[in-house]
Automatic annotation (TrEMBL):
Provenance organism: Carbonactinospora thermoautotrophica
Record family assignment: Belongs to the asparaginase 1 family.
Protein name: Asparaginase
Keywords carried by this UniProt record: Hydrolase
Annotated catalytic residues: T20 (o-isoaspartyl threonine intermediate)
Amino acid sequence: MTSIPSADAPQVTVFSLGGTIAMTDDGRGGVVPALSGAALLAAVPGLTETGITVTVEDFRRLPGASLTFDDVYELVEAIGKAVAAGAHGVVVTQGTDTIEETAYLIDLLWDGHAPVVVTGAMRNPTLAGADGPANLLAALLVAASPQAAGMGCLVVFNDEIHAARHVRKTHATSTATFVSPNTGPLGHVVEGVPRLLTRPTPKPPLPHRQRAGRARVALVTVSLGDDGELLRGLAERFDGLVVAGFGAGHVPARLVPPLEDLAGRIPVVLASRTGAGSVLTGTYGFPGSERDLLARGLISAGWHDPLKARVLLHVLLAAGATREEITTAFATA
């Protein structure tokens, strides 16, 4: 644990999890997560001038693709301890591969007033124009800002401030990869000052938040000519299913019988593979339409994209939520 002391200043704890922002050349032609959180902070220009007192915890040293639900549950516990010890805000640095999922999971689990800000980098520190230091500085400024309090988990990237529940990774390499398709950013960091243009609506409390057991949730994306083979035997292997359907929530007619059968055995959530917009409820009436599937027991994901729908369903199932509670949570979360 490393501290950068500054008297009478906002206190922010940084949890370093690895990812591109912390990667260096391993001598074999590729980069791997190796840098400590203290090393990341040492590369941030102008940090001392912010007056923020920063404490660093090296929580994990993994690529984003290798993070798990267990890692995030443990991280949220550690965040709670850091805030109880006096942190005004928290920054999490990690790999961008899974930020849209981990940030939303943190948002669901974290019920504190202190802001939790997730950031990372698209260009590792060995590359020209590495974006990690700028992203980390912006994230620290947001986490230390009183304006960000009570907003749950935020993603700060490329000087934009996004709500975790809306943000998506939309490009494999661009530094402007994080976008909130349905809402746009909440604000921006301008000349070192967080400028919030709007605030997300308050989160309704989940019926269950504490994990009572483990859950396995499958995600199946429907595609042209899909014959439903991926659905075979799924209820015996998984506790829940998210179906990423066409358009506003549609599947081929041949998938209707197996999906209806699955919905009678495990919760099946219907999302749109488009990644933006809401699943409809009553516009289309053909076999395999959203109206048909919802009438057969599938649960609408609403505005949740498939990845976030899977995260929410996992949290609910792991906490022992009933089918009715799951339906309500998707309608209101």
